[in-house]
Design a protein that fits this description.
Blueprint (H helix, E strand, L loop, with lengths): L7 E4 L8 H15 L6 H18 L5 H16 L5 H8 L11 H8 L4 E6 L3 H11 L5 E4 H4 L6 H14 L6 E5 L2 H10 L4 E4 L22 E3 L2 H12 L1
Parallel strand pairs: 1-2, 1-4, 2-3, 4-5, 5-6
Helix pairs in contact: 1-2, 2-3, 3-4, 5-10
Length: 239
């Protein structure tokens, strides 16, 4: 396969295009400090990750701000630190404030010259609209967990992606999925036969951070440390 063999790219957003670990840490850090916790950001992210995944699995029809609030409360229960409704609700509403990775807008603009761009994200429509303003690109289609009624790694989300690519007339084998999370994206995407690009944003950091460890080994078809490096490789192939 070549990167230029495809007509469309589907993207995870949070962790790939938007720096969700920076956003989550910024939301949890003041609460942790106020409670006297001495956790590093990395320790907070690791402790938090299982609670968000569990909330998404057990409450698939909750919109993402409710998932975030629930996960924060469960983290507080685990650590023995109370979480007020005000703190939980503020954390749930923080997604539009999460920063884009510096290279995301420019890389997306370049990729839009070659491909149709589709979002497949574990988020709600309102939160993504705030993030989209930071990305500065018009996506051909946007598929959120709110639309599907489930959260990745559920295969229902990838079924929705398949239905949307068929509606757009994208041919069989002409879609490439681009994501950071092996847990949320690469394991399920590869299980349904999608080729994938791993944007390994954590290439300089050990561990899994805010993303749970994948339940199975998986081999993405390409790996890049950033969106800029991915766009550079596409440009090089396209000449």
């Amino acid at each position: 396969m070549k990167l230029t063999d495809f007509d469309a790219l589907s993207f995870d957003c949070y962790g790939t295009l938007i720096d969700w670990e920076a956003g989550i840490a910024a939301g949890l850090r003041p609460w942790a400090r106020e409670a006297g916790l001495t956790f590093s950001d990395e320790e907070l992210l690791t402790a938090y990750s299982a609670h968000e995944a569990q909330a998404e699995r057990e409450h698939p029809r909750d919109i993402y701000p409710l998932i975030l609030a629930r996960a924060m409360r469960e983290l507080g229960a685990q650590l023995g630190v109370p979480v007020s409704d005000v703190q939980a609700d503020a954390f749930g509403a923080s997604v539009p404030e999460w920063p884009a990775f510096d290279d995301s807008p420019e890389a997306l603009a370049r990729l839009a010259e070659q491909y149709q761009l589709i979002i497949l994200s574990n988020v709600d429509r309102t939160s993504f609209a705030g993030s989209n303003r930071r990305l500065g690109v018009e996506f051909t289609s946007i598929i959120t967990a709110e639309d599907v009624g489930s959260y990745k790694p559920s295969l229902r989300n990838f079924d929705a992606l398949a239905a949307e690519t068929a509606r757009l007339g994208i041919g069989e084998g002409r879609l490439l999925h681009v994501a950071q999370s092996l847990f949320h994206d690469h394991v399920p995407a590869k299980s349904v036969g999608l080729p994938t690009v791993w944007i390994n944003r954590r290439h300089d950091n050990p561990g899994w951070g805010a993303t749970p460890e994948p339940p199975a080994s998986v081999a993405p078809d390409w790996t890049f440390p950033s969106m800029a490096a991915f766009a550079d490789a596409v440009d090089a192939e396209a000449g």
